[in-house]
Design goal:
Radius of gyration: 18 Å
Strand content: 15-25%
Strand order of the largest sheet: 1-2-3-4-5-6-7-8
Oligomer: single chain
Shape: globular
Number of helices: 16
Largest sheet: 8 strands, parallel
Length: 324
């Protein structure tokens, strides 16, 4: 099974750059502050609240990400890990407020990330903002996002129980009209109604997480009928106590109900996970069959922003592995 998972041409479609900072870079940089194997990176660790998780993430990541060059350095290591796992397509987002924290224009961060992409990997770069950013001092920056070259799209992330600014729907529609992909974190820490909000009010086709939609069959049907994709992160969901275990994760039920689901790592800095481990955990703990893992891999390519020939080649390779 491990060889089979390695052979699958995989995609990663839910990955935060700051949350994917390779921990070994921190260890080498400041060994006294970042010792080997901190408790929060143990597989058994459970974050008690989202603010607890966010504090650990920011305390580790923000001291590192002080310049566009630091994004480049981190992404070179991060993307090399993808290539080693036979991941061939990645969608990753950087935190838009960082542009204010470090006084670096977003396009410079995008260029730094882009320059770190190896030849064998397709990468699409997003930016992510908090639900409250539209009403703060980032609004002028947000109003210019549709003009940023190299920006594939925008994600609404952060603490899900914050209200969504009413202007978001208009801004998201404008971004889509300019050819940007819009995403929204929903159905993680808040209930299924936030998934409905993301689909019906914001008009998104890409939900980050979405797993709590399973609590309302009408919203599961809505997502399936609208062709919405849930970019799911099982190990993150367990670590943050959104679900009790991989075995009890609703991924299989969502897929059986017709919702297209992908699998990603979310924040490997905090969970010490890899995409290979995500697939392996599904196989060993949730008894996912090869056919189910094949469908997960295929789903990622179905939504990937690649040339049709690239998509067809990857899916054909997945099909050969499934039939082999």
């Amino acid at each position: 099974m491990r060889d089979f998972i390695q052979a699958l041409p995989k995609t990663e479609t839910h990955l935060h750059v700051e949350g994917a900072l390779p921990y070994e870079l921190l260890e080498a940089w400041r060994p006294r502050d970042y010792p080997p194997n901190p408790p929060f990176r143990a597989r058994s660790y459970r974050y008690q609240t989202f603010p607890d998780f966010e504090k650990i993430l920011l305390d580790a990541a923000l001291p590192w990400f002080t310049t566009p060059e630091r994004y480049h350095e981190a992404c070179k290591v991060m993307f090399a890990k993808h290539v080693a796992q036979n991941v061939r397509y990645v969608e990753t987002s950087f935190h838009l407020p960082v542009t204010k924290f470090i006084n670096a224009p977003g396009p410079e961060i995008i260029a730094a990330i882009r320059a770190a992409v190896p030849a064998r990997l397709e990468v699409r770069i997003f930016t992510g903002m908090l639900r409250s950013d539209l009403t703060g001092d980032l609004r002028p920056t947000i109003n210019q996002l549709h003009t940023w070259d190299g920006l594939a799209g925008v994600d609404l992330h952060g603490f899900e129980k914050q209200p969504t600014a009413i202007e978001t729907a208009e801004v998201w529609a404008r971004l889509r009209a300019a050819g940007k992909v819009t995403k929204c974190h929903a159905g993680e820490f808040d209930g299924p109604a936030r998934v409905r909000e993301a689909i019906e009010l914001l008009g998104v086709k890409r939900i980050q997480h979405g797993v709590r939609a399973i609590e309302d069959p009408t919203i599961v049907k809505l997502a399936a009928d609208r062709g919405v994709t849930f970019d799911v992160c099982p190990i993150s969901n367990v670590g943050l106590k959104v679900v009790p275990s991989i075995r009890e994760h609703p991924l299989r039920r969502l897929m059986q109900a017709g919702v297209r689901c992908t699998v990603s790592t979310d924040d490997p800095l905090c969970f010490a996970n890899s995409l290979t481990e995500e697939y392996t955990s599904l196989a060993l703990e949730a008894n996912f069959t090869r056919a189910e893992l094949v469908q997960v891999a295929r789903n990622g390519w179905e939504v990937a922003d690649v040339a049709p020939a690239v998509r067809d080649t990857a899916i054909a390779e997945i099909t050969r592995l499934a039939n082999g």
